[in-house]
Amino acid sequence: MNEAAHILVVDDDARLRTLLSRYLAENGFRVTTAATAGEARDKLRSVAPDLLVLDVMMPGESGLELTESLRAEQGGALPVLLLTARSAPEDRISGFEAGADDYLGKPFDPRELVLRIRAMLRRSAQGPVDLPVLPIRLGEATFDPQRGELRNPEGTVRLTGGEAALLAALARKSGEVLAREDIAQALGMDEAGERAIDVQVTRLRRKIEVDPREPRFLLTVRGRGYVLKPGI
Fold this sequence. Notes:
This protein is α/β, with parallel strands linked by helices.
């Protein structure tokens, strides 16, 4: 039997931490909690969670700052779900720009949180099923869809879980135009996720294009969506 997924919940609201810890445990997860970004860093030195549930508005270092820092230090290996009372589209986009994989506004139904966590864990554990077998060339970079790994002559390029999943989704339909809603559906994202796709595309272009302002490989098809065109 597979070991239960381990979730690290970081929120300065003690009551919410207790409620989430109890509910997630009742739904089969192992749970560790922290009240601040600093405490979360301490926990991450001794535990290796499968997913981080992180409040945005905390005293001291915010959830956005912690997400950006973790991405810089560790890349995209640890999926991050942000929680915040600020749920305007601009706030969600800021979360995705920081490197988060998903975003849930407060107040929320804990059942939705569990569903989002399970969807994120499925994406992060996605195997080679329905993925191209061979890596694809993107100029000097090479993307291996099975590993979710992007490499260039300087070494491995760090991708967040969301970036790797998006690039793999485009690679599966290489040469075909995919609408935002189709990409979002393939990634298990909602309407807010559709808007976040634009942010993820911008971030990916910085990593695969020589000049992100004049992309050669990840192209926008006005009024339709995006298409990935591998090449030398």
